[in-house]
Amino acid sequence: MIPGFGGRRRFSDLSEAEILALAISSEEDDGRIYANYAERLRKDYPASAAVFDAMAAEEDGHRRRLIDAFERRFGKVIPLVRREHVAGYYSRRPVWLIENLGLERIRAEAERMEDEAAAFYTRAAQASTDPDTRRLLGDLAAAERGHEQRAKDLEAQALGGAAGETENEKARRQFVLTWVQPGLAGLMDGSVSTLAPIFATAFATQDPGTTFLVGLAASVGAGISMGFTEAAHDDGVISGRGSPLKRGLASGIMTAVGGLGHALPYLIPHFWTATAIAGLVVFVELWAIAWIQNRFMETPFARAVFQVVLGGALVLAAGIAIGGS
User: Taking the model in full, what pTM does it have?
Assistant: First the structure.
C-alpha cells in the first residue's frame, strides 16, 4: 500500500453522483477560503477584500446550482466525498500559510486555485470513456474557467484606478518594510562586519581550517544577534513594519548568509585558492547589496556603490592589514 493513499479512491472509480458530491464539497471549501482571505484583507486592503467577498458569493452560487443538479438526478442525500478522499485530486494550501504572505501572494493563490480546478476537470474529462461523465466533467471545467474570468472582471472593477494603485503600493511598501529592509540590513552586516575577522585570521594563520571555523562562528553568532535584535527592538505595532518574527528571521538568516559567503571558500585546503575565491565572493556580495539598495530602497546606484563597495573594501583592507602585520 502506498503511504498516505490507504483507503483513498481513484477519481476514475467515482460514480457521477460522487463526482457531483466532490464538486459540491470543493465549492464549499473554496468559498470558505475566499471568505477568509476577504476577512484577512478587510482592514488594510478593503478593495481587494470586496473582490474576495464577491468571489466567495460566486462559489456559493455554483455550489447551490450543483446541489440542485444533484437533487434532480440522485435525490436529497449527498454522499460525503472530499478532496482528501480521492487519490491524485488537487489540494489546497492551508489558509493560514497563504494569508500571511501578503496581498500579491493571496491574489496569485486565488488564480492558482481556479487554474488547478479547471485543469483537473479538463484532464479527467479527456480520460473518461463514458459520454455522460465526459459531459459532466467538461461542464465543471467550463465553470471553473468561468470563475477565473469572473474573478478577473471583479478585480478590474474593484481595483481599477486609484484604489488598485494605492493597495499595490501599500503591499509593496509592507513587503519592503517586513522582508527587504531587515534582510538587506542583515546582508550588509554579515557581509561587511565579518570581513575583518575572517581575512585577519586568514592572513595571520594562512590556515584554511582555522579561518573557516572563525568565519563560521562569526557568521552564525552575528546572525543570531541580528535576528534577536531586529525582533526585540520593535514589535511592529506602532512602526507598521510587520511581524517581528518575520523581520527577525529575514535579518538573522541574511546576516549569516552574508558572512558564510566568504567563509565557505576556506573549506578548500589550499590557502591562496580559497582566499582568491573568497575575495571574488566578497566582490559579488557587495555589488549585489548595492543593486538591492537601488532596486528596492530606491537608493541612487552611484551612492549605493559608494556606501557599500567602498565601505566593504575599507573593512577588507583593514582585516588584511591587521592579519598580515
Answer: 0.56
